């Protein structure tokens, strides 16, 4: 199921990917436990899908929960922890850029902003 969800995500089929990823995460929590590395991976995958759907705040909150658990379970230097932490940093940066663009009122060209899901552009 996780592989099919990944395929859907790679194809941009966000709703189908999300549905499967939620099932994978819930099943993993039930069978392996909330702190199992596979469960943490399923959390991160769902966060990526939410981010791609424009659910940036939900995605960021889930990825932050994932990072906290990875630091506790895998350790702060584990590659998965470092990768997830880098993702959190990137998503926070994108949200700050979005906020700055919205506050400045400057729109240089009308392209879709990945951070905001609205028409805006970066300075």
- What's the architecture, going by CATH? Alpha Horseshoe
CATH class: Mainly Alpha
Low-confidence sequence ranges = 118-123
Characterize the biggest β-sheet: none
Indicate the structural class: mainly alpha
- Helical content stands at over 70%
Order of helices and strands: HHHHH
What is CATH's topology name? Serine Threonine Protein Phosphatase 5, Tetratricopeptide repeat
Cα distance, first to last residue? 41 Å
Distinct helical segment count: 5
Characterize the structure shown.
It holds the Pfam family TPR_10. This is Tetratricopeptide repeat-domain-containing protein. With 123 residues, the chain is mostly helical. It has a single domain (2-96), classed as Serine Threonine Protein Phosphatase 5, Tetratricopeptide repeat, CATH 1.25.40. It is built from 5 helices and no strands. The radius of gyration is 16 Å and the shape is globular. The model is unreliable at 118-123 (pLDDT under 50).
